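hi! just following up on the protien thing from before. the input was this:
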Amino acid sequence: MKLSHRTRNVVCGFLLPLTMAACAVPEPGQRQNDAPFDPYESANRNVHKFNLAVDRTLFRPASKGYTNIIPDPIEDSFNSFSENLSEPGDAANFLLQGDFKQAGISLGRFLMNSTIGFAGLANPASDFGVPETNTDFGETLAAWGFSEGAYIELPFFGPSTQRDSVGVFVDFFTNPLNFAPQRPVENIGFYANALERLSDRGRYSDTVDSILYQSADSYAVARLIYLQNRRFKLEGDSSDTYVDPYADTFSDPYEDPYAE
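and the predicted 3d structure came back as:
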């Protein structure tokens, strides 16, 4: 589904100032052969250094403690609970993308796992063969015809693009389960997502550490992996060469599937 030029201008105006970034496109010749469009590299590298410091002093040790203390079955249940809370948002984004089939699948998974799956702590939907689906508002913007814009690294969130950073903002602040400033104790989606991120960081610690602390240039490696996976997800789902690192529960989402 493509938006007209006029409609895109309306959306940009509605989401200013963030969506202005998503409307930006590289000038001709600035991006060749799918090379990263990174005009803010200097600022991005400073943010990357900040994220490394946060990871080294806080997130990495916390994630290792979490995965060492929490038994795997309970950790899996918490992850399933977090993923289930994202299903309504996925359904809404699929609707905005015009993909009614996937929207129905997401909604069906949410209803099934929320009832017979003990509020999402179990995943009977997958056991019954209902496929897992995921999307976000960044993907919705791509479906509407917005370009990815420049590569940026967000504090705490890590690698992104201007378009995807708008998606992060919209997905977070439009989900009442994630953000309820008047009722912080009820921000269950935020806490569940934080535990899922801790779980991923702890379970794939060796791979993440090799990227962040053993690479000659961890910024460039993280940028390459993110852009490769994101572009293939948005543009090459039907390609035989595409490997979705998130499709397998036991795969490593931080591994570069294209490395030889």
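The two ends are 35 Å apart (CA to CA).
The longest helix spans residues 41-69.
cheers
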